[in-house]
Amino acid sequence: KGKGTNAMAIETAGRLGTATSVDALIAALSTDYKAEATAALLAFNGNINERVTTALKTATGDLQLALLDIANTRRIKSASPQVFELINSSDATVAAAALKALPGVVTKDNATQLAGMMDKASGEKAAIYQQAFTASIKGMNAEELISRLEGTQCRGGTSCPDQLAKAVKEALAK
Q: Cα–Cα distance between 20 and 98 in angstroms, integer?
């Protein structure tokens, strides 16, 4: 059986590559065509970052969950403030989706914040914060890593990020 007209329209909107198409696809995430809209947004040949980030600021329910997944999969760094905020959501499903999205949206500016979060977390949450921390320092040169992380205080007066900065500093000195 062939695709329905609505599903084909959503697929076509994903190929158009316009801002209006992105808005229509985001709106379709709240319909019975969520799977088609998600696939179109993930395959969208253009920049959807600003529109996804803006929609995430006001979204609720299933739309919020779908946008978190898209932000993670597309690595939408501009969504990191919303994702950090949603980690503490009173809705456990939203908090879990935000936590899952975190490693995909962090930037190097989040490294110190993540170091503190790792220090206070345990179990699965700590593991995801570690993944996010690793993603946040990826691509930093040695000097930048040292300047951002050296002296980061956590439990016991030191932290793994501080120790990492010290180790890198020592390696550079050799």
A: 26
pTM for the full model? Answer: 0.83
Q: Which two tokens stand for residue 63?
A: 């739309």
Provide the phi-psi class of 17: left if phi over 0, else alpha when psi is between -120 and 50, else beta. Answer: left
Phi/psi at 2 (5° precision) = -75, 170
- Give the integer Cα–Cα distance in Å for 141 and 126: 25
Could you report the per-residue pLDDT of 71-111, keeping only the tens digit for each?
Answer: 999 999 999 999 999 999 999 999 999 999 999 999 999 98
CA separation for the pair 90, 169 (Å, rounded)? 41
Residue holding tokens 């019975």?
32
Given a contact cutoff of 8 angstroms between Cβ atoms, the answer to whether 11 and 38 are in contact is: no
